[in-house]
Structures
1.
Amino acid sequence: MTTSMTNSRIAETFEQVADLLEFQGSNPFRIRAYRNSARTIRDLPELISTILADKNRKLTEIDGIGKDLAQKCEQLVQEGALEQLQELREQIPSTVLDLLRIPDLGPKKAKVLYADLGITTLEQLRVACEEGQVRQLKGFASKTEQSILHGIEIAEQANQRIKWVKADEIAQRLVEHLRACASIQRLELAGSYRRGTETVGDLDVLVVSDKSDEVMDRFGDAPDIAQVIARGETKMSIRLTTGLSVDLRVVPKESFGAALQYFTGSKSHNVALRGMAKKQGLKINEYGVFRTENGKEKYVAGGEETDVYACLSLPLFPPELREARREFEWAAQDAVPRLIELSDIQGDLHVHTTATDGKASLEEMVAAAKSRGLSYLAITDHSQRVSMARGLNAERLLKQWQEIDRLNESLGPEFNIIKGLECDILESGPLDLPDDVLAQGDWIIASIHYGQNQSRQQITDRILGALENPFVSAIAHPTGRLINRREPYEVDMEQVLAAAKQHGKLLELNANPARLDLNDIHCAVAKAQGIPVVINTDAHSESGLDTMRYGVLQARRGGLTKESVANTRPWREVHKLIGAGKS
Ligand code: DGT
Ligand code: CA
Ligand code: CA
Ligand code: ZN
């Protein structure tokens, strides 16, 4: 029996069956039966699998579940899949399902498009709309063509996972909208968003209310809503015009903690947790923690997340660690790391100014750093190779460093401007400026901007070469990836980490929300090997300094503590740390 077959997965399966049947033009009563049962099952307070496991009970007791559907539930729970759905999928091209994701198109119209114009993909549909073929079909007006074209964009975007930062913007706006609803007693965002993953598939919102209708009305009126995907008693899903979908669940007070735990995930963390619960004779699901006594299930906890974990003698794990990686092992040793926080950061060691491609002057960047409570800032403009950004040659660089010396004198001891440089690692291997120049600075970070398509060996060798240079203190954005836009370049991170360790160098976690390299795994490895990570914004403007929090979030996912991050220390300690790498 597959325990992962939740009610919501059963419901989803029935909905897909209904969609496909409707697409085929099947009997409307049959289709409605699937849709109704999907709704019923989704909102059932008990798990279908629990009822099935009880010999004294039958699924057909549930209103709206006949013999046929009861049998299908059984098959789903036992085999994890439904034969009928697989058969339907074989009969209909899978891309046709993409058509169903277009807001307001629906299976009936999709069927006409397929039958009359042979359309099976979004791209074919776009062409047909643009050529005016669609308006000639029965039931389609030219206005529909316009809205289909718009809908195609939404459907295409719906395929994509969005960057965390974008999800954050949307989530904050949505929360603000929902907060205005007086019927909401508690509200929390769950899912991958809460765990701080690099990209987010959809948002999951959890609400406590005893007026779920009012909450759902408000939710259905969300800013930038494109479509209500489904609305039930306790669950509702919408799609926004950006293509992002948002799931809302309304739960009773006593289930809030359990639901928050469940819907925060990750799935694998939950699976592991359920296994542990079982061993202790407990059952844990989105409604609470239960113990069976005298054949009766007794609610033990569920109001608060802490209580749910406490039932299993576990600590309240920071959401960022809930990936079934090492958190349970740490908990067993009472060694869950105390994760780094934004307020631990004391300085930023990678920013640009108007001398190269920054938007603010040196003085403005310093003032902005001070106003954000930092006590040091390294100015690391680009070196000459980055001609697009008017990179600095030796002469301009040394002039900038003189100016920094002057400014530092006027600033007094509370704030340090660090003479830095982001020195390019040239395509052919060497650094962009000679050692005798680099030697005059305090903080040289090396990075790759050109020749990113070179072989793994070439790129790795370039970085290893930079790590051997006595004047280089860190490698900036070590993999060069841009999330959703550019893959990391080919680089052997194992070798890079080993060389950083050997030469006493630091590795940067770039806080730019599109970069975020090191990734969480790299961070964890760096920590395990004792390589200090430095979290930098790479700010090109004053507000760029505010991206530090994205870097801190990524660091937390990697299990980094205050101690494992270099720029949580005062500059003189960082200076000592890199001094070791220079000798
Ligand atoms: P996403 O949306 O793809 O970025 O990732 P999540 O983690 O937000 O996934 P989502 O939205 O599908 O579900 C939210 C959470 O709900 C997930 O992290 C764990 C929980 N969950 C959903 N479905 C299942 C399931 O079948 N089994 C278990 N154990 N947990 C589930
Ligand atoms: Ca999600
Ligand atoms: Ca979801
Ligand atoms: Zn930079």
2.
Amino acid sequence: MSILDKNKVEHYNGISTLNNHSILKRGVRTMKYKVEVLTGIRPTNDLTIANYLGAVMPIIELQAQGISPVVFVADLHALTDNEPATIRQYIYGVVADYIALGVDPQKANIYLQSDIIGEVTTLTTLLSRHISVAELLRVPTLKDKLKANTRPETANTLLFLYPILMAADILLNRARKVPVGEDQLAHIEVTRLLARRFNKKYGEVFPIPDVLQVKPLRILSLKGEGKMSKTNPNGAIFLTDNLKTVARKIKSAETAFEMIVNEKLKSHILIAGKLAKTESEREEVDAIIQEHKTGKPVMGRFKQLFIRIVQNFLAEFQGKRAEIMRDPSYIPSVLEKGAKIARENAIETLQEVKRVLWLT
Ligand code: TYM
């Protein structure tokens, strides 16, 4: 039995006379990044183009550069405010969405969060003591939720733990970069804070992750009221919207008076620019906006172009997705392979965490 193991036994038996805690600190094995880029999506509804632009498109771009991404279906996060039966119904859909959007199961790893529920919830618990209740209550997403439709009296504790659960996902994978929309920035900050605090106390266990984008996107609702969100369907373009619906939604989108480029219009320009398939379409967008800036009434033309770009994007996506869903039987095998790899990585991380905490 090594000296450290002996100390542990004494400590367990409550007979330790050691008051020098540094002796009890276990030697640290510095952990390295394991996953270059990681992101997750909650299976709560059909995805919107904001989910694609904020989180998935950056992944596809990195995959094209030869990086192997890891993406997952965040069904435990979905449980914060959705019924299990609803969640169940969207899981395969999110996997099909990832693949139809360009995540290549041969290059990427796709897993279901609850397939590693033991590891995720264990790390959530072990991280929880490194952040105070007051700090969690200051996380803007929680503050907004509590203001909007949930009160502390009725909010469930999983909602409260949401950022720590997210930190567990990222830290278990030892991910370097996390592409997310702007709404998730605060959660990445909590993740970084938890990792730093843990490392300070126990040694460099967690490599510190960061947001991928220098400036994460905030796609606005077409109506301009807040961000585009699954919970506000009229202001959102869903990846499953049919072409007529898209045209209707964009026609009733709010834009801006001549010469003015407000936040709403900026968001529309961003969507059009990112979804455009060709350089000439992007040039068309620029040219119309230049005319707008000189005071010409071109918003009707802009909307026509905007509709065409989004419809082309969705037609291609929906074609691919339909093909995948015609025979979804291979999705379980994709998730099975994903779970195996995710579990191996998670166990490796968790073993080190437990070791430095004297839990093994
Ligand atoms: P979810 O499903 O709510 O959102 C998935 C991704 O879509 C981004 N997003 C947006 N981006 C730009 N503009 C918008 N209007 C917009 N709306 C949504 C979100 O920022 C997100 O990146 N908590 C995550 C799921 C998750 C996760 C993780 C992500 C759980 N664990 C670990 C990364 C790493 C979420 O918001 O899912």
